[in-house]
Structures are given as C-alpha cells and as structure tokens.
# Entry
Amino acid sequence: MKIKICIVATLLIMLPGFANATRIKELAAFEGVRENQLVGYGLVVGLSGSGDSDQAKIQLQSVATMLERMGVSVNASQMKLKNVAAVMVTATLPPFSKQGSRIDALVSSMGDAKSIAGGTLIMAPLKGADNQVYAVAQGPVLTNSFAFGGQAASAQKNHPTAGTIPSGALVERELPNTMAGKSRLTLNLVRSDFTTASRVTAAVNERFGGGTATTKDPGSVSIAVPSIYADKVFEFVSVVENLDVRPDNIARVVVNERTGTIVMGEQVRIATVAVSHGNLSLVIKETPQVSQPEPLSKTGETKVVPRTDMKVEEESRRLTVLPEGSTIGDVVRALNVLGVTPRDLIGILQAVKASGALEAELTII
# Structure
C-alpha cells in the first residue's frame, strides 16, 4: 500500500517588504483580557426512556432535592425515573460580557444515559473558579444525533450523550473591567520570541513616539498610555492591535511519518551536501509443488516439495550534490533532483540533519 505524502512549502519570501506583516491582534493579547471557564451541574428532563437507570441514583437524589425546593415532598428511594439524566454543563464567559447577554452552553451526560437527544435542561447555575455564579443555563438540548436499538441490533449517529444549547446560558454577573483607568498596559505574545517582541516595541514607538513601549521579556511588552488617550484607553488599544508587525519564527522542518506529511518554514536553508540514495528491494515467493507417484504404481507416496523464488533489485543511484539553498523553493527543488519518493525524502532529511547540512530544527511528531 502506497502512502501518500504531502510536502507543504510556505513560499512567502516572494512578497516584498511588509507583505508578510501580521496585525498585533493576531500575535498578542493584552493582560487581563481573557475568557473564563464556567461549570455547573444540572438535570435534563423529557427524555424518551433513554435517561439514567436506577443504578445511577444521582439523578434520583437531584430530582428529590429539586422537588422539595418547589414544595413537593418525595422519597428518593421510592422513585423510578427513566426520562431524566444527570449532566455537567460547561460554558466559556467572554471578556467584557454584560449582564443579560447570552452564551452557548455544552451539556454532557454523567451517568449511564443512552441519549439526551430531545431533552430539556432545567435551570443550572454556572460557577467560575472563585465559586461565584456568573451565568444560568436552561433550554432544549441539541445533539444532532440519534441512538435506537433492540436486543439484536442497534443504530447510532454521532454522539447522543452530549449536546449544546445555543445561546442557552444567561450572564448574571459581569467580570470587573481591569483595563479602565490604567496608565500602563502589558501586551503578552502568543509565542515568546526576542525578535518579535522587539519588532512589536518598535512598531508601537514608531506610531506613538519613542519610550511608549518597552520590552520586558521575550513574551511581553509594556506600553504606556499616551496622555491624549488617558480617557480613551480602549480606543488606544484598538489602534495598537491594528499595527502591522512581521513576526519572526525559527527555521523548522516538521515531519509526521505516520501520516507522511512534511512541512517546511520559509527560513529553512540547506548547506552544500552530497547525497546518494538507493532502494534495495527483496521479493521472496514460496510456490510449493506436489510430487506424486505414477498412476497404478505399487510403491511411492505423495510428497510436497517446497520451491522458493527470490528476486533482488537494487536501484543504481549516483552521488548527487545538493547546492546551498537560499530559499525553501531551492531546497525542495534540490531534494527533488534525486527523484525519490516522499517517504524516502523523510529519511534523507534526517540524514542531512545528522550531517549538519540542514540549517533548521527537525521536529518529528
């Protein structure tokens, strides 16, 4: 079976100047502007006999507690429920979410329910890491799946024990505004890099004047809010986020031998190196033959005689000199001169790296 291998080369060096520039918004985020995870426990009701079994028991206690809060006294040990499932509800609270806004909620079964499709989540408070309630989720659960079956056969589509409630969580508590009134902001890079941090600092200083931004470390830049933006911090943030910066990355070659994928960055270079690559193919075929006595003979017996056919093929490849490559395109063209398969190319890259001729980091995943 032939393994198809895809070589992805990023040929961005053909674009001049800041054609490769990226907005600071894609490279970094301001400190304090982040999402927060919420989690809660709830009950999904209205299921068609696919809820938790009586062995789970967690849903029995939860239903009994819920009914008692509504003024109905019940005994959990005497209840038998098939249309209720205990679930965990999770959501992500975006920064600067206002009270009354809605966010999506994810509902996942906790017990042995077969499906929560068609059910309705009863009001479930969602708490943050500080154990404070920030949202309340309720509504019909959408799973885009089904699960049916009998004793001898069953049918299932997608994952019926987890679903979503689009805009099903209502924000009840707002997060504090950590940026208002600040005279200095911190910009954290998504990927720490000395060169990228220096370029971000230079771009901000070029736009707002020298001394506005200083590099604290490879992962963060400290920015002073200019006096003209003292009462307009968010307008200042908007301008900074849209400044163009050309990020810097280390030269890296990523090889995934399982899927046969090779990805090279634009900074990859190769020194002059001579490579010879040949394939040795050995084919062994067993063809047993049957030897038996002549018809009507009085002696002799049938024998199985083994027969082995062996064929050895070795490709004759000459030594090929790969010149020093100045671009990723030159590197790929030089390696293709050998006429090898992509699978062989993985081995060649490893050997070239071991020889010290590959001026890049080789990462195997």
Summary: Helices lie at 24-27, 58-69, 194-208, 233-241, 328-336, 342-355. Residues 1-19 have pLDDT under 50 and may be disordered. The chain has three domains: 22-33+178-245, 36-171, 252-291+301-364.
